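Incident review: delayed structure delivery

Summary: a single-chain prediction request sat in the queue longer than the usual turnaround. Root cause was a stuck worker, restarted by the on-call engineer. No data loss occurred. The affected request and its eventual output are reproduced below so the record is complete for anyone auditing the incident later.

Affected input:
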Amino acid sequence: MAAETAGMKRIVPDYDVPAALMVPHYACTIDGVLETIANAAALHIGVILLSGDPAASRTLVANHPLPDHFSIIAAPFDTPWIRDRSPIPVIGADGVQWVLPRMNMAGRDQDTVLFGAISVKESEPCGLLVAQGNLVAGPGGIALSSSQILSDNGLDGVAQLVPYQAQLGIEHWIVFEPFLEEQTRHADVHARFLNDGLLALAWNAGSAHDRAVARDIEIQVRAVLPDITVLRMPLRTAGSHYASPVNWIQIERRLLVPRFPLTPAEDSVLIGELLRAHGFDVVFIDSPTTEFGGSLHCLTASIYV
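Output delivered after worker restart:
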């Protein structure tokens, strides 16, 4: 089911190169993952460390071969899952504008006000409740969301999203039913665009339901982009724990791809082969995060200016 509207603005595809990648940095059970992301990303792009411990962050920067690629912002936050509280970048005649959707305040008060508190760039408020992880942007104003966006906002159908499309720069809003047991119900666990003509789908060989979900996403995308190439990325699960490789971070042709404890070696080989065949440089980062329902993409925020 897709909603369509026309407008001058366009949501920025999440494969566009950001001005910087924001990475939280503080003592937690996955601080090793956060530091690995920051160190790998800083080889190619600016990194903003959102720091709960500036002294520790300065040590990390000092030990990096490109310390001038880092900046540090000290600010309080509740969790490292900052993607879902970050503003949505929309580009128009006046450049990039930030749209800040309505937030679910429960239990994450500091995260909810984080970007308003640390940003000098003003954000335009939006009345729709949407986590950025559930808004995967592609070419020409196409966006993917699971039906969680409807239930989060008390909406009966995709047509009720139309009033928000112009503000968010969305021309074609594709909404799909999520994987059967996946706990986040966010689109960035299901599918990611790699460029204007390439889409990657998480492909669960162990679930007919989840494969049907992936096929539905492909069918809806092909209705808008009939010539798109689709890659099927092997996905492993254990109950509600989904080890989705497409929750990656993209920096031009470089992909930081999560590798989970659930991911067998043969899957990593296949993922690497599929992506390298399309010209991508693949770096695997061990991600012991399956119990949390997210990975590298969810743990960071892309900053467009």
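Verification: Residues 208-224 form the longest helix (17 residues).
Action items: add queue-age alerting; document worker restart procedure.
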